[in-house]
Amino acid sequence: MNTIKPLEKLSIFSFRGVQMRTFHITWMTFFVCFFGWFGLAPLMPTIKETLHLTKPQIGNIIIASVSGTIIARLLIGRLCDTWGPRKTYTALLLIGSIPVMCVGLADSYTSFLLFRLAISIIGASFVITQFHTSMMFSAALKGTANAVAGGWGNLGGGVTNMLMPIVFSVIVGFGFVKADAWRYAMILPGVMMLIMAFVYFYFTKDTPAGNYDEIEREVQAKTKTDYSVLKDWRVWALALSYAVCFGMEITFDNVAALHFVQEYKLSQSAAGFWAGAFGFMNIFARALGGIFADRVGRSYGMRGKGLLLASVLLLEGLGLLLFANSGNMTLAILSMVTFALFLKMANGTTYAITPFINTKNVGLVSGVVGAGGNVGGMLFGFLFKSETITYMQAFGYIGLIAIAVSVIVFITRFSESKKSVELHLA
Predict the structure, then answer these.
(1) Strands (E), 44-138
(2) What is the DSSP letter of 43?
(3) How crowded is the C-beta side of 342, counted as CA atoms within 13 Å?
(4) Where residue 424 falls among pLDDT bands split at 50, 70, 90?
(5) How many angstroms separate the CA atoms of 76 and 257, rounded?
(6) What fold characterizes domain 19-210+220-416?
(7) What is the mean pLDDT of residues 394-413?
(8) Most buried of the four, 124, 152, 209, 324, by CB within 10 Å?
């Protein structure tokens, strides 16, 4: 039997060994998934004109872009426990690439809405990334590894906002009209997803010991899902946390470019750049959350991690209130950077706790918490759909909600006794 074990050290510049190779491939794949999932977002000013979309219709599109992910993340968590992350990710990439490449066929609000809903299943890629990373590293390193993989993958959201308007402009430069250019631009993310499906299937392993269908049956038996974990309040507290941090992140990815165009009269390219700056902070901010959480955990256990999470959620909420009351573009960017830092740290901290809630059902717990992020994104979408609430007011309301959730997290006990219990888990 293969005795390769989870790594005790994260060497981010190394590709040696199945653990580090899988680590790098999984975050790169998640990065590519953002191009498929949110490639349309920075092009929405043009799509709005092309399809003559109203504010409520755009709100419905925002809701659709995250709704399918809710169910998909719950199913994906179960599939990771049974099929293994390698086959699950490959299948998601192959299926998800179809609506991405075909969305250009949409010729009305209704057809575009349906394509956007189908594309939203790609958001389940996050659960696989976190599950797979958790399998490759020791308990003391899971928080840092998950945060770095998630953050670098989420970086795709920022790069997408910056790059897709450029791809659009290049296509226009070749003589295509704007009404068609956004359609052809979406072929690129679909092709990228197909390439990563091939890479994922052939160059990763489910566990350090091998794929699920290669290792001994008693090892596989440990992956049976126990749904009683859903009775654990800690799971739902983390789901609430993820609703206001990652849920806000994907909401902002969806509306930022359009918001900057409408509120500050920027061009589509300039709006895409500043929206991309928000996502670009994932290169370090989410990792900071995981690193700090692991360090706090070594000294103060799960309770310390919970207090850290409550703190960054509170600061995220205050930053959002500042953004909602920005009077000019300069203040808007400064406050955006502020709330983005703490929001992304909250993302990393949430998933520094998640793998320890129930170590035998990491996939299910990761799926529920991950789905919580998309429930948040979906509900926030209703604020941006409203005819009576401005985008600025919507950001303010979300800030208040984040502050309320920080209180809930503060009073939640994530551990029962020993403060460093997670370091002893297998």
Answers:
(1) none
(2) G
(3) 23
(4) very low
(5) 30
(6) Growth Hormone; Chain: A; (1.20.1250)
(7) 96
(8) 124
CA-wise closest residue to 95 among 111, 77, 72? 72
For 401-426, letters b (16+ CB in 10 Å) and e give bbbebbeebeebebbeeeeeebeeee
CA distance 336 to 340: 6
Tell me what percent of the residues of the chain surpass a pLDDT of 90: 64
- Amino acid letter, 196: M
Q: Which of 399, 397, 349 is nearest to 237 (CA)?
A: 349
Tell me: the pLDDT tens digits for 197-219? 999 999 999 998 889 888 764 44
Q: How does pLDDT run across 205-262, given as a tens digit for each residue?
A: 999 888 988 876 444 445 566 778 888 999 999 999 999 999 999 999 889 999 999 9
Q: What is the CA radius of gyration of the chain?
A: 20
Query: What residue spans define the domains of the chain?
Result: 19-210+220-416
Residue 175 corresponds to which tokens in the numbers above? Answer: 């003589």
Contacts of residue 189, defined as CB under 8 A and 6 or more positions apart, other chains included, come to 32, 35, 36, 39, 100
The DSSP 8-state label assigned to residue 210 in this structure reads: B
Task: Please count the other Cβ atoms lying within 10 Å of the Cβ belonging to residue 52.
Answer: 9
Q: What is the DSSP string of 330-376?
A: HHHHHHHHHHHHHHHHHHHHHHHHGGGT-TT-HHHHHHHHHHHHHHH
Spatial distance between the Cα atoms of 179 and 311, rounded to a whole number of angstroms: 45
Using alpha carbons, list the distances in angstroms from residue 67 to 43, 45, 121, 251, 373. 20, 22, 8, 12, 10
202, amino acid identity: Y
Tell me the pLDDT tens digit for each residue of 275-330.
999 988 988 998 899 889 989 988 889 999 999 999 999 999 999 999 999 989 99
